[in-house]
Amino acid sequence: MLREGLAAGVRPLGPTVGLGVDVLLCGLLALAAWWWLSPRTNGGWGERAAAWALRFLLLAWVLALAHYAWGLASGRLAPWLTWPVLGCYFVVGAWVRRGGAPPAAPAHPSDPMLPTRPRPHPAMWVALALFLVQSPHLFFPYHYTDAQQIWACRALKFAERGALTGVFDCIDPVRPPLHSLILWLGVSDPTFQGRLLPFLLFGALALLFYHLLQRVAPRLAPWGLVWLLATDQVFKGQVTAYAGVPAMIAVTAAIAVATDNGALVSSRWLGLVIGAVAGAVIVLIRRDGLPEFLVAMGVLIWTARDRRDLRLWLPLVGAAAGYLSWTLRPAGLEAPAGFAPTLGVLPPLPQWPPAPVPATVAMVRLAYGAQGQVFGHYGYGAFAWGWLIVVVWMVRSGGGGGGAASPVWSWLVGWAWPVWRGGLRPTRSMPL
Fold first, then answer.
1. What is the DSSP string of 349-398?
2. pLDDT of residue 96
């Protein structure tokens, strides 16, 4: 893929202004996320890292949503809007830092009861290696079919037209454009072409996901993180700019906020904002991730002790608002009946029907593909992971009022079992 890009005239490995702007944008988002961390935040490095990751996701999404709203309202995309939004982050962050619960009294350094810092689990180094081993893909030009014809195609056309009407130059213009807008934020960078920020967003998901695993199965958490990062289709979907993994990230963030015990978000209003933004992002990235999100949130609402908690409902309100914003978009963004895109950005790849194979071979392929479909496609990854987290956590805590032996929990665990079998096989040491 890199050779094809070089042959087409792409020169990704040299220093450019676009590369500097892209790195600066990601660095400022990371710094603003740290600035939004309240100094009163309690917990170890894992909880603080997960809290930072959640804020990093929020700020990146709000930036993309600001460009989306500006594009709908004015009919044009304004790259300059990025910098006022970043400036507002630091101004608002000064107020956010004053919130939070009072910190617990720290133990004196000479206190013999002070626990020593635990050494990192060996599996954490494996997880880090699995994450870094995918970084060379950032330098590859867009090659995957859907990236060429939908997601990256739109980002390049947004930059060329300076408007959301770039969707008409690519396949399926009725799809919501938010993921392509995230790519568009860095598309002027010839090195990463917009792939750097989504890659970092996935890294933030890894930190957040590890925190959720620690809550339900502390001993298995490092290996669960390894399995997530080793899942082929998850990373394949991420490094090729496919929209399934970004939708999974948003669903996981919404679930994390709805089940948070104060470790991630100590301010209630900030948790409500994150939930609402995550709900809007889900439907504006990939609309067919909405059914899984609705089911996952429905499970949370059904099992909640306090169903009046707004953290359960604001993500649904945000999803409805995002869905209506694109459904009721201006007439200039409506595709006419029988519309055929020009496909003028990247040449479509040749397609041909697969050769017939015996039924046994087809079944083996289907079983192998289940891993990719469940954990990296159409947002099912978020649904499966979120479902398992909710089931295990609620069974352990005895929530939902029915107890672990109730018919509802038996049904939930029974449904989750075949999904779980695809990865971490339960053993006698599992919390269940």
1. PP--PPPP--HHHHHHHHHHHHHHHHHHSTTHHHHHHHHHHHHHHHHHHT
2. 84
